[in-house]
Write a sequence for this structure.
């Protein structure tokens, strides 16, 4: 997650002060966590320095407002249309599995079993969360969790195929 582009996104909609940006970014992050407030202000300073953001003044409560420049909108639009490369810990697992496979078949079996157990546990937790999000009407996080579940199910299918080929 890029704080830089999150801020540009929010400022492209309307002017914000720092604390509003922090609250809105936390919402954009969804399941990923929370943003450190210091990171907001450091990023705003860099965006201002780079000519992507401006500060048109202060609001009625003496909080500094920020707005996006045309150059910032152009950079945001360019970033938004760039495809995102798929990557996650699967590459780390694949390397580890390849190493286990070369050294000891019992370790490979144990490793695959433990990985499956971890995935099943995550699927159960996320399925519960998905239901809660559906009940709360939180469409964005619901869709995010659904996508994560689909990836976990694909990983589980792959591990099952590896186990079946080993027999």
């Amino acid at each position: 997650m890029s704080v830089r582009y999150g801020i540009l996104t929010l400022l492209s909609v309307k002017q914000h002060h720092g604390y509003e940006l922090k609250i809105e970014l936390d919402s954009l992050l969804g399941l990923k966590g929370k943003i450190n407030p210091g990171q907001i202000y450091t990023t705003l300073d860099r965006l201002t320095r780079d000519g992507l953001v401006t500060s048109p003044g202060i609001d009625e409560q003496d909080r500094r407002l920020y707005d996006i420049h045309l150059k910032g909108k152009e950079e945001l639009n360019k970033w938004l249309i760039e495809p995102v490369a798929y990557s996650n810990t699967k590459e780390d697992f694949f390397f580890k599995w390849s190493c286990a496979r070369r050294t000891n078949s019992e370790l490979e079996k144990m490793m695959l079993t433990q990985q499956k157990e971890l995935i099943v546990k995550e699927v159960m937790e996320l399925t519960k969360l998905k239901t809660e999000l559906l009940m709360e009407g939180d469409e964005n996080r619901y869709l995010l969790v659904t996508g994560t579940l689909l990836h976990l199910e694909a990983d589980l299918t792959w591990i099952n195929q590896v186990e079946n080929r080993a027999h």
Summary: The mean pLDDT is 85.
